[in-house]
Amino acid sequence: MPEITPVPLSQLTTLRVGGSPQRMVEATTADELADALREVWAAGEPWLVLGGGSNLLFCDEEFEGTVILVRSSGIERLPSPNPGHVRLRVQAGHSWDDLVAQTVAAGLSGIEAMAGIPGTTGAAPIQNVGAYGQEIVETLVEVELIDEATGEVSVVPASDLGLGLRTSVLKKHYGSVPERSAVILSVTLELAQVGHGAVPVRGAQLRSALGLDADAEVTLAWIRETVLEIRGRKGMVLDEDDHDTWSAGSFFQNPVVSAQFAATLPAEAPRWSMAPALEADRVIPLDRFDGFIPPRAGGPAPVKISAAWLIEHAGMRKGFRLPGSQASLSTKHALALTNRGRATAEEVAALARLIQQRVQSEFGVVLQPEPVLFDVEL
User: Fold this and answer.
1) 166 labelled catalytic
2) Residue 168 has pLDDT above 60, yes or no
């Protein structure tokens, strides 16, 4: 297995913080990745798989274990059983943004609104990445993964991954272990073949973000370029010279609360109903009808509220930082915690803790971190 000289994770993560591991391995193919994992699992040593490093807050101390760098790449085009669609099998280490660019260039729709999201394709299903109303759960067919418990490789359908709001059974949430300890080797998506002409834009949230009317039609390329412009204005597109992009993106999840609790918040607090789209009329063939018709879901739908609004209205404006700290809120977006040049992981964590305390005190909401925190306490 190609072992390389370890370097600090501050050189490999978008937050630019993190100490060095004792050992570092680079895997350029799915087979190399699987072999490296089996080796560290058999040895019983601590391990971390690292893709683009865009969703990780890593500790300042030396890591007494192995970091495996996922550097596999490649896109394989496959037939789809659904007319007008195509499937793509993508290697785990392939750049997500490059994948989006290639699908748009090929006239394939389904992930164009997720342009500019940093990181690798293999990491995308772990937290069900999404932006502007699109989420990978809408296009994900299956993943190829290797389980720590058995060391075996299997193909797992998307329906078995527990995909939810920035979560899955594979994600290590703060303070817990993943439900299934496994590493993705490849991802298969199903995308619609719409070509390069103007098409209707699905989703009210996406149309709102792009400033489009309900009947507007635009090209996939226009959507991608416009999303990149919007993300760029918020400091959410990586730029070596812009410290506002030295972040893990949105550090806190937008909370999902009950409609009753949302009604207690100030009227101007942004919110979005999580009500599912209305079901189409259900037709049950007579030979399969057993006399039971499942009821439709009832009651008020949960509501998603803006974490950025909560942070700013708890008294921490864009650019806020603790005295003497090199970690601050982005000057462009209150949801991003940034490194102004020489921040430590502990400085980022201290700012995150203060934000959580202020928001809970002011609004009764506990913000949950979105990135994976490795040996860092909030």
Assistant:
1) yes
2) yes
